[in-house]
Automatic annotation (TrEMBL):
Keywords: Aminotransferase, Pyridoxal phosphate, Transferase. Its EC number is 2.6.1.17. It is an enzyme of class 2 (transferase). It comes from Pseudarthrobacter niigatensis. InterPro entries: Aminotransferase_I/II_large (IPR004839), Kynurenine-oxoglutarate_AT (IPR051326), PyrdxlP-dep_Trfase (IPR015424), PyrdxlP-dep_Trfase_major (IPR015421), PyrdxlP-dep_Trfase_small (IPR015422). Belongs to the class-I pyridoxal-phosphate-dependent aminotransferase family. SUPFAM superfamilies: PLP-dependent transferases. One of its GO terms (molecular function) is succinyldiaminopimelate transaminase activity. Its cofactor is pyridoxal 5'-phosphate. The keyword Oxidoreductase does not apply. GO terms for cellular component: cytoplasm. This is N-succinyldiaminopimelate aminotransferase.
Length: 382
């Protein structure tokens, strides 16, 4: 299990944030914005607390939030989950991922993910007792090889765990790639769990929920969260939707993980999900500018920059600087130049770690002047 999270006793996010705090470095490691989300949502939480929304919420979530999640799915994607039976609220996407994996996968099963994979996937697949199989995503575009994808499926592939837009690479998979996964899942009788927490953070491309593709709806659990869309990562309100019988199985597990999730935050996020379309387009265009500022700085500093189409992360190759070990560099970078980043090999099994050995991930969900200062510091590496 320890090997599944890169052999580290604490998560890489905690390790790098602790290092950034100790050294006073600019933290472009752990992904969290340095500006809080919309004031109306924060005020709504305050009002909910004042009006007494302070005891347990129903286990499956406040009705107004389940309804808001369903309305959001309908408004953006034309999906219409029944808020009574096909939506549940979770304690962040992290709990949704854990509850879904534990509901569907166990010893003797295989769970297939792309690699690099978000750190909690490896750890929870380990907890479930299932085997973790992977399909590599390689720079520069981080798209899966179709033959490798087909070869990775087996009769034991119980779950395909997708993440789109993809952390850490910033890739956004085109509908044809997603359809391929859906078709293979159909052929092998696999359940699809799709983590779409960055659904609104795409640049110049739209987001295609897996559940909208032919053949997907009946076998897909879709997971998202308020953290990224509303820049409220500390609230830990997430949700998932899918066919009633799959959602019921996940809910059974969720009951015994946390039972329910923060009541006043749920009430406030219900209001957030109803914000007008220009809020959603606004966050994407603001982030796209930040992406471009940091990418230009990283390029000027001598890195190979792999421009992301989504998320708030940009990956770079360190080889042009004569550095081949990103893990070692990430551990020294805060002292060296005063910037923290995340090494990509920690999101991989040993073979994948070798393949991604010189990749570093930087978060760009920070104020413009912070990104410019980070770029100036990184320029002194050469
Ligand atoms: N999935 C991915 C791909 C993420 O990047 C993150 C966190 N940044 C999560 C899940 C966890 O989301 P939450 O904070 O809502 O638990
Ligand atoms: N998802 C965030 C990232 O990828 C961090 C979340 C965490 O700290 N667990 O940076």
């Amino acid at each position: 299990l320890l090997a599944a999270d890169g052999g580290l006793g604490v998560t890489i996010f905690e390790e790098m944030t602790t290092l950034a705090v100790r050294t006073g470095a600019i933290n472009l490691g752990q992904g969290f914005p340095d500006e809080d989300g919309p004031v109306e949502i924060r005020e709504a939480a305050r009002a909910a607390i004042a009006s007494g929304a302070n005891q347990y919420a129903p286990g499956k979530g406040l009705p107004e939030l389940r309804e808001a999640v369903a309305a959001h799915q309908e408004r953006f994607y034309g999906l219409a989950p029944d808020p009574a039976t096909e939506v549940i609220i979770t304690t962040g996407a992290t709990e949704g991922i854990a509850a879904a994996l534990l509901a569907f996968a166990g010893p003797g099963d295989e769970v297939l993910t792309f690699e690099p994979f978000y750190d909690s996937y490896g750890a929870v697949i380990g907890l479930s007792g299932a085997t973790h199989t992977t399909v590599p995503l390689a720079a520069p575009d981080f798209m899966p090889d179709v033959a490798a994808l087909e070869a990775a499926f087996s009769v034991r592939t119980k779950v395909v765990l997708l993440n789109n837009p993809h952390n850490p690479t910033g890739a956004v998979f085109p509908p044809a790639v997603l359809q391929r996964v859906v078709d293979l899942a159909g052929r092998h009788g696999s359940i699809i769990i799709t983590d779409e927490v960055y659904e609104h953070l795409t640049f110049g491309v739209g987001h295609t929920p897996v559940a909208t593709l032919p053949g997907a709806a009946g076998r897909t659990i879709t997971i998202s969260s308020a953290g990224k869309t509303f820049s409220l990562t500390g609230w830990k309100i997430g949700w998932l939707s899918g066919p009633e019988e799959l959602v019921a199985a996940v809910r059974t597990v969720k009951q015994f993980l946390t039972y329910s999730s923060g009541t006043p935050f749920q009430a406030a996020i219900a209001k957030g999900l109803a914000l007008p379309d220009d809020f959603y387009t606004g966050i994407a265009s603001a982030l796209e500018q930040k992406r471009d500022i940091l990418s230009a700085g990283l390029r000027a500093a001598g890195f190979d920059v792999f421009t992301p189409q989504g998320t708030y992360f940009v990956n770079v190759g360190t080889a042009p600087l004569g550095i081949t070990d990103a893990l070692d560099l990430a551990r020294r970078l805060p002292e060296l130049v005063g910037v923290a980043a995340i090494p990509v090999p920690v999101f991989c099994h040993p073979e994948g770690a070798e393949r991604t050995r010189s990749l570093l991930r930087f978060a760009f969900c920070k104020k413009t002047n912070v990104l410019e200062e980070a770029a100036a510091r990184l320029a002194t590496l050469r």
